[in-house]
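Supplementary Note 3. Input sequence used for the single-chain structure prediction.
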Amino acid sequence: MSVIANTTVISNFACIGQLELLRRLHSQIYLAMEVYQEIQTGLADGYQFYQTLEEQIYPWQETGWIILTSMVEEAEFLRFSELPAKLHPGEASSLVIAQQRGWLLLTD
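The predicted structure, written as discrete structure tokens, is reproduced below.
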């Protein structure tokens, strides 16, 4: 089963230097583009623990185990627009992708 993680999960494991633990549990994890954008914002805001993340993301790294994905189906965009505005875009897109594709969602 495919697995997608939201920003908080990636942040928490990156913050404590334990992304490898996630990799051992799930050899591949998908990351919504909205989550990636939130991580880039965090990096710009000074969250240095994100610095090594790019080295693990496919397609930036051919051997990356964290794979970028995005909403592509009309049903995904429709469901995304129906979610409460209080959800962050990364959280909402991860939820929608997991629900629409039958994937496991890693969240807080």
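The radius of gyration is 13 Å. Strands lie at 3-5, 29-32, 57-58, 66-69, 104-106.
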